[in-house]
Design a protein that fits this description.
- This protein is of the alpha+beta class and 389 residues long.
- It has one domain: Chorismate synthase AroC (Chorismate synthase, AroC fold, 4-Layer Sandwich).
- Helix content is 33%, strand content 20%.
- It has a five-stranded antiparallel sheet with strand order 8-7-9-15-10. Strands 1-2-6-3 form a four-stranded antiparallel sheet, with helices on one face.
- Helix 1 crosses helix 6, helix 1 runs antiparallel to helix 11 and helix 6 packs across helix 11.
- 40% of the residues are buried.
- Bound molecules: flavin mononucleotide.
- Flavin mononucleotide binds next to helix 11.
């Protein structure tokens, strides 16, 4: 990240999650409702564990906003963990261990437990799992909501929908991404197809009954993105690379594709390149299709940006897999702690947040501006230059 920087902090059962976002220009209207709305979206979705019933996330804005507008300084956000009252002893920052909680010693295959314990030299896996947990993504969604609010000033919208859960999948043929998004918003599994949603729910019920878990695939898109964000000139400026890293950084995401992605590799070049035409009336270039997912040469090309991510199944299983106790070295079953069965719908909302963070960064890199007014002037002049190209 260049223009926009952010950090998150906080443990899953600690007092709170904290985030600091720097680089948002001054004058952007912002209130906690803009953020709470997104936090709520992250918390919904069929297949989540008991925690979602305890937590109803709300943000507090601690800095960077005055009288409903950003002032250009770092924006600090806090989300309190409502569960803290049950954990304040177990997660105490005081020196003394008072025996109030047993150490976690049975690493879960597929989680950060064993690798983290070895790396950080700890014999209580809680020190690892508290931070590797996807609870952290609540703050990413909050920070992403600020960037979403910024992008809205430039008529850029970001959405997502789920295309598969386990073996149930859809292949959305519809070109209208916004209508897929709206349908997904009404589905408990964020899938735009009603029939497939039902089958996904049945599959989740089956996994729940059998003490198992599921993963899946979701697509994130951005509409209204101008051509020219990102660049071909250096590896780390390529927007496809930056978006892929951002999506891949979400816990349990194991694959990312841009546009047609892996399927492109199976076809002839003539079948997958998006042919170029010119609309004289609008003085703009256009494409018949969008197999490129809106990015060519690491730059946006003016078409919708589309990125797809694959999430592996949740590693914590009610019917735990074989593991080894890190103290006794004896063969045991892995630890179980209240867990989601499927979190693909939530992951798609987190994917949107990451897309917003990356796009806001790339947008400010291209158009600059310390105030929204200045960014808008720069943007307007670029759009004018495109029409006269
Ligand atoms: C929204 C979301 C919710 C998750 N919920 C759980 C959960 O309840 N239990 C669990 O074991 N893993 C859960 N995960 C996945 C783990 O956080 C992830 O698998 C773990 O951190 C190991 O990282 P890795 O899978 O990227 O290697 C969740 C992931 C996401 C994105």
């Amino acid at each position: 990240m260049r223009t926009i920087r952010f950090l998150t902090a906080g443990e899953s059962h600690g007092r709170a999650l904290t985030g600091v976002l720097e680089g948002i220009p001054s004058g952007l209207p912002l209130c906690s409702d803009d953020i709470d709305r997104e936090l709520k979206r992250r918390q919904t979705g069929y297949g989540r564990g008991g925690r979602m019933k305890i937590e109803s996330d709300r943000v507090e804005i601690l800095s960077g906003v005055r009288w409903g507008r950003t002032i250009g300084s770092p924006i600090t956000l806090v989300i309190e963990n409502k569960d803290w009252q049950n954990w304040h002893e177990a997660m105490s920052v005081d020196k003394q261990y008072n025996g109030c909680i047993e150490p976690v010693t049975r690493p879960r295959p597929g989680h950060a437990d064993l690798a983290g314990a070895l790396k950080y030299g700890v014999h209580d896996i809680r020190n690892i799992l508290e931070r590797s947990s996807a609870r952290e993504t609540a703050m990413r969604v909050a920070l992403g909501a600020v960037c979403r609010r910024f992008l809205l000033e430039f008529d850029i919208t970001v959405g997502s929908y789920v295309t598969s859960i386990g073996s149930v999948s859809i292949n959305p043929q519809a070109k209208d991404l916004m209508s897929l998004f709206k349908k997904a918003e009404a589905s408990p599994v964020r899938c735009p197809d009603r029939e497939a949603s039902k089958r996904m729910i049945e599959l989740i019920d089956r996994a729940l009954k059998e003490g198992d878990s599921l993963g899946g695939v979701f697509e994130v898109f951005a509409l209204g993105v101008p051509p020219g964000l990102g660049s071909h000139i250096q590896w780390d400026r390529r927007l496809d690379g930056r978006l892929s890293q951002a999506l891949m950084s979400i816990q349990a995401i194991k694959g990312v594709e841009v546009g047609l992605g892996f399927k492109m590799a199976e076809r002839f070049g003539s079948e997958v390149m998006d042919e170029i035409s010119y609309r004289h009336a609008e003085k703009s270039f256009s494409r018949k299709g969008n197999n490129a997912g809106g990015i060519e040469g690491g730059m946006t090309n003016g078409m919708p940006v589309i990125i797809r991510a694959a999430m592996k199944p949740i590693p914590t299983l009610k019917r735990p897999l074989k593991s080894v106790d890190i103290i006794t070295k004896k063969s045991v079953r892995a630890a179980y702690e209240r867990s989601d069965v499927c979190a693909v719908p939530a992951a798609s909302v987190i994917g949107e947040a990451m897309m917003c963070l990356v796009l806001a960064d790339a947008f400010l890199e291209k158009f600059g501006g310390d105030s929204i007014k200045e960014t808008k002037q720069n943007y307007k002049s670029y759009l004018k230059s495109l029409r006269g190209f």
